[in-house]
Amino acid sequence: MNIRSLFILCFFICFTFAKAGGERRPKDSTNIYQKIDTNFVENYKDMLNAKLIAVVRTNSFSIKNKINGSALEYSINTNINMGIGFNFKGIGFEFQFNPKGLNKDDATFGKSSQFAIASSANTRRFIYDAFYRYNQGFHTTTMYRVPGDTIYDYYKRADIRNYNAGVNLIYIFNNKRFSSAAPYSLTQRQRKGAGSLLLGSYFFLYGIDADSLIYPDTLYKNFNPEVQFADASSVVFGISCGYTYTFVFFRHWFANITTIPGISLQQFYSINAFSQKVYSRSSASISLQSRLSIGYNRKNYFIGISWMNNNFLINDSMESTVNYKFGTFRFYYGHRFDLRKFLKKKF
């Protein structure tokens, strides 16, 4: 991990602690829950959520020449992580690990390593996310003939490193009848279908670093000089506006769909791997945040799947585009425990 990545990680940790230290909780937290419409939302935040989870994280980037149509996309070797999670009084944490023997495709796609730290919250009025992710080891998403070989294969680059960090804050307008926590953190239940307009802002850093040019030697001439790099990064600041809706059927089944497009200002920076010439460009860019959750939610237990994806498109010049996206797919099964009843019986 280079110095820039360490700096970003320290900034993220300081930001998270500053946010936590600056919040003031009301003396009586039940006042918060009295502001929701209980005909639409049922609250479980006073119960302990314990769950088993399976998580798959995706991370990819692609570069395309709009003039001749040349394109190349890299992705990490996605692995299934298993873990456990707990949530109580709006505070939760998860522990995940990569079980041995479950992911056996390193020979085909190469090995990827990852480090991630995140803080998130689904409150009555806001959806908040802050994260830092670091990945090393990428492969092309399509097979092609490697020079000197007679068969098609994936081009594997163990030296490509990627970091991305960001903060995302979204305001929920219909915060009395719609719960953002119900389909994702499962600390509440949506009793009747409801949705809300969303308005947010976001700030992201994204970087790619490699020991040499990211393209195979036979392809670099197909791309413009500013994307013939071994080192590139972008800074993005934008606003977003979208909509979310949770469908409720057969009383306890639910499905949430969330779409949040955004527009932003971005600074793209790269260093040509051959001439070492520096390219820097400021322009407008677009983004799309998508969320999907489907599950079954009762008072004592819940089960479901969720998918979250972030997609950013950068026009680094009139002829080239850089697109990067990352997401998380998870399966969960959990139980809720009423600690108040347990403590009364115990003491």
Give me some keywords for this one:
single chain; 347 residues; mainly beta; Lipocalin; ten-stranded antiparallel barrel; two-stranded antiparallel sheet; 4 helices; 10% helix; globular
Give the termini separation: 50 Å
Going by CATH, the architecture would be Beta Barrel
Number of helices in the DSSP assignment: 4
Give the overall pLDDT as a whole number. 83
Percentage of β-strand residues: over 45%
SS-based class: mainly beta
Describe the sheet with the most strands: 10 strands, antiparallel, barrel
Give the beta-strand count.
17
Question: What is the element string, with H for helices and E for strands?
Answer: HHEEEEEHEEEEEEEEEEEEH
Radius of gyration based on Cα positions: 22 Å
Task: State the shape.
Answer: globular
Side-by-side strand order of the widest sheet? 2-3-7-10-12-13-14-15-16-17
The CATH class: Mainly Beta
pLDDT < 50 runs, ≥5 residues: 5-33
Count of discrete domains: 1
Task: Return the CATH topology.
Answer: Lipocalin
Fraction of residues in helix = 10-25%
